[in-house]
Specification:
The chain is mainly alpha-helical. It is about 35% helix and about 5% strand. It has a domain at about 60-155: Glycoprotein, Type 4 Pilin. Strand 1 (about 125-130) and strand 2 (about 140) form a beta hairpin.
Length: about 160
């Protein structure tokens, strides 16, 4: 179309273009139809339904791995305590003996941790048992439910 053709006035009987080809002064309707919005919402729902469970399962696995790493660090601190003091902390002393000097322990050379023993990834305290069922001592996380026993993320975690 040349410049001269664009400048010519349109005859009165000619129809105005509709939709996206409309020119100035024509009424233009824009937006999405209800069907298009519903299709997009269904696609988003399917993606969330597919990705969501896999994502949250990975979070649960990472919490178990974090608990095992913390238990490993606590076990090393307990072993260092035993090397210095000559015995493991009692059940009454628990893991706090790694940070705070117990009474009547002159050979204590701690603290063996930089701060008080941390809670497990679910916010529950670790359980210390002396003697342990699996060795000289046990350090156990009670899992997500904070109660003994359980399955899955609620299972007890120990080394």
């Amino acid at each position: 179309m040349t410049l001269s053709q664009r400048a010519r006035p349109r005859p009165a009987h000619a129809k105005r273009p509709q939709g996206r080809f409309a020119v100035f002064g024509a009424r233009v309707q824009r937006g999405f139809t209800l069907i298009e919005l519903l299709v997009v919402m269904v696609i988003i729902g399917l993606l969330v339904g597919y990705v969501g469970p896999r994502y949250f399962a990975q979070i649960g696995k990472s919490e178990v791995k974090a608990a095992l790493a913390q238990i490993d660090g606590l076990e090393k601190a307990v072993e260092q305590y035993r090397l210095d003091v000559g015995k493991f902390p009692s059940n009454e002393q628990g893991l706090n003996a790694l940070f705070v000097r117990p009474t009547n322990e002159p050979r204590w050379q701690g603290p063996y941790l930089k701060k008080m023993p941390p809670p497990d990834p679910w916010g529950n305290p670790y359980v210390y048992r002396n003697p342990g069922a699996n060795g000289d001592f046990d350090i156990v996380s009670l899992g997500k439910d904070g109660a003994p026993g359980g399955e899955g993320e609620a299972a007890d975690i120990s080394k």
